[in-house]
Amino acid sequence: MSEDKKIKITSDTKPVAGAVDNLEKEFKEHSVAEFFKKNKQMIGLYGKVRTLTMVIHEYVTNSLDACEETGILPNIDVKIDELGDEYYEVTVTDNGPGITIENVGKAFGKLLAGTKFHRLMQSRGQQGIGASGCTMLSQMTTGKASKIITGKEGKKAIALELVIDPRMNEPKISNVKEIEKDFRGTSVQAKFKGCLYRDSDQGALEYLKRTAIANPHAQISFRDPMGQKTVFKRTHNTLPQRPAEIKPHPKGTTVDDVLTYCKSTKGRTVASFLTNDFDRMGAKGIEEIKKRVHFDLNKDPKLLTWEEAEEIVKAFKAISFIAPSTDALRPIGEEQIRKSLQSIVQPEFLTVLTRKPTVYAGGYPFQVEIAIAYGGGSGRKVGDQTSMDIMRFANRVPLLFDNGNCALTKAIQTIDWKRYDIKDPSTAPVTVFVNFISVHIPYTGAGKQAIADEEEVLEEIRLALMQTGRKAGIYIAHKRRESENQQKRLMFYKYIPEVCKALSTITKANEENLKKKMEKMVLEKLKIDEQKEEEDRKKTEKTLANDDNSFITKPKPEKEENKKKLKK
Ligand SMILES: Nc1ncnc2c1ncn2[C@@H]1O[C@H](COP(=O)(O)OP(=O)(O)OP(=O)(O)O)[C@@H](O)[C@H]1O
Ligand SMILES: [Mg+2]
Q1: What stretch of H or E contains 62?
Q2: Are 228 and 300 found together in one domain?
Q3: Ligand 1 mean position, distance from CA 568 (Å)
Q4: Are the CB atoms for 114 and 62 separated by under 8 Å?
Q5: Of 66, 101, 77, 93, whose CA–CA distance to 178 is shortest?
Q6: Which of 409, 442, 464 is the last residue of a domain?
Q7: Which of 317, 359, 372, 421 meets the CB 3.0–4.6 Å disulfide criterion with 472?
Q8: Quick one: 459 and 553 in the same domain?
Q9: Which of the ligands is closest to the CA of residue 127?
Q10: What's the pTM?
Q11: Residue owning the nearest CA to atom 22 of ligand 1
Q12: Residues 456 and 486 placed together within one structural domain of the fold
């Protein structure tokens, strides 16, 4: 080290008297609840409108997960009451399985507790902080407890109130009562201050509308703070098949994962641990691993060292395994997406695609569903303007926030929409629906609103967009030609009187006669144009009719309107 780079130890670097002792005294432990209490933005609870929508999101996703896991067609009732300035009460009631008295406290009053975090299974929740995060926000902003009523089949329902003790990250339950009313399901009621209800793109109504689109088997009713009631009726009476839990795939496993899994394995030897606890691990895989590691695979897995786990993961990388099982995924399905969008968005044209499952990061199965809707209620409407609306979903959950940072948005932005006759997405009456499903969604944060841009995910979404874009393009191009012809006609009619007036002045011919002749000529020309248009329409319909996933709901809606315009 050169002279001038040496650290100089001078009297200036001596600590201030007593400071070291004071610093040591400041050393404290904190619970995860205290952490999130201080950093509620990390779980998406920030912004006045966003906060209220996120609260609804957490409760509703839990209700849907619970109903589906137990084979119940979900009926969910959401109410928001305004109690004062930026002060609301939220009530969400479901007809799900209910929660036992033993677990209800932890479900709503302990962060990082739940039934989903430890499983590789397609579900909406995956962290164990949604419901308890809301309980904490409620007590932080109002000082009030959350009220829960929960009833299980054949048992008396119970009502209770709870808050979280942040220092211990434990629930504090009070006022437990048995209630006589026959009730099966869970109802949560909590108060929140510092938030706002808005009927906007990011408000609870839009969130529930999108939830209904992606969950056609759910019946969702909503009462807003003004007392306005909206019911999203179930359009499909069968529950999606329960997703299967899958085992971790060796290719997506880290050394730390191996050491975590081996602590809870039922396998008595490392060989049986690997065979039982990993996807696609058979006798051949074990033989290959045996050749590559320097310890006995008959060893007790609970005694595995870091170095031995490292050898196992190195072997995982070197050996080829069959790709992970993808049959555990449960897409919404083309038929259901079509029904939902037709009932809620009511587009003029719709094309839908559910791609085959594939894998990201070596070990996580995922699948992409895309729909492109055009015309009718498609697109995002602000005043007179309609622009492309992007509806993002992860495991059927609408993602309303953080769109700029999300792989789904990024994939859509990389598409050259001009190829599909969408010249300018900011003026296109188009809705792009994307549902990304996986046993593990790679969210960019605990707020679960944006998906990380894994290479395979981006590519798969792009392919699906191009496939559906081509079909939408055929219809949109046909509509463009139709509208251009219409413009031409209007121009002819507009200028006939002026042209005839000028001609009559020059030629001294009778202006009225000229007008009649000219109108006859234009009408004949228009007839030819209409014939061509009809042929074009039939051709477009025929091309799209050969495709099972494209639907034209209203083939000629504008034409009638324009005809009326012409007559005027
Ligand atoms: N309405 C409900 N019916 C039945 N069980 C519920 C209900 N709401 C919550 N639970 C249980 O409480 C647990 C905790 O819910 P919470 O929302 O905190 O976490 P999560 O849903 O597991 O994951 P995430 O944090 O990603 O939402 C759930 O895993 C579930 O077992
Ligand atoms: Mg949850």
Answers
A1: helix 48-69
A2: no
A3: 60
A4: no
A5: 101
A6: 464
A7: 372
A8: no
A9: 1
A10: 0.83
A11: 128
A12: no
The CATH number of the domain where 285 resides is what?
A: 1.10.8.50
Nearest one of 125, 154, 148, 116 to 58, comparing CA atoms: 125
- Ligand 1 mutation target, pool 64, 65, 110, most atoms within 8 A of CB: 65
Looking at the CA of residue 128, tell me the nearest atom of ligand 1.
19
Q: Which structural domain, as residue segments, surrounds residue 546?
A: 475-567
**Residue 440 placed within a domain:** yes
Q: Which two tokens mark 324? A: 């992970």
Ligand 1 centroid, distance to 59 Cα (angstroms): 8
Give the end-to-end CA distance of the chain in Å, rounded to a whole number.
91
Q: Using CA positions, which residue lies closest to atom 1 of ligand 1? A: 63
What gap in Å lies between CA 178 and CA 145, rounded to an integer? Answer: 18
Would you state the pLDDT for residue 563? 52
Please report whether residue 243 resides in a domain: no
Here the CATH number for the domain that contains residue 225 is 3.30.565.10
Summarised one tens digit per residue, pLDDT across range 217-276 is 999 999 999 999 999 999 889 998 888 888 889 988 899 989 999 998 999 999 999 999
How many angstroms is it from 396 CA to the middle of ligand 2?
A: 13
CA of 64 to the centre of ligand 2 (A): 10
Residue nearest to atom 9 of ligand 1 (CA): 62
pLDDT digits (tens, 9 = 90+) for 373-407: 999 999 998 888 999 999 999 999 999 999 988 99
Which residues, by Cβ under 5 Å, contact ligand 2, an ion?
A: 62, 125, 130
What are 371's two structure tokens? 């729909």
Number of domains comprising the chain: 4
Q: Is residue 133 part of a domain?
A: yes
Q: Please list every protein residue whose CB sits less than 6 Å from any atom of ligand 1.
A: 58, 62-63, 66, 94, 96-97, 99, 107, 114-116, 125-132, 186
Nearest CA to ligand 1 atom 26: 125
Closest ligand to Cα 105: 1
CATH number at 402 reads 3.30.230.10
Same domain, 92 and 204: yes
Cα 137 to Cα 167, 173, 207, 243, 333, distances in angstroms: 15, 17, 20, 31, 36
Rounded Cα–Cα distance for residues 201 and 89 (Å): 21
A 10 A CB-CB count for 346 gives 15
Backbone φ and ψ of 184, nearest 5°: -120, 125
Ligand 1 centroid to residue 240 C-alpha, Å? 19
Residues 125 and 199 in one domain: yes
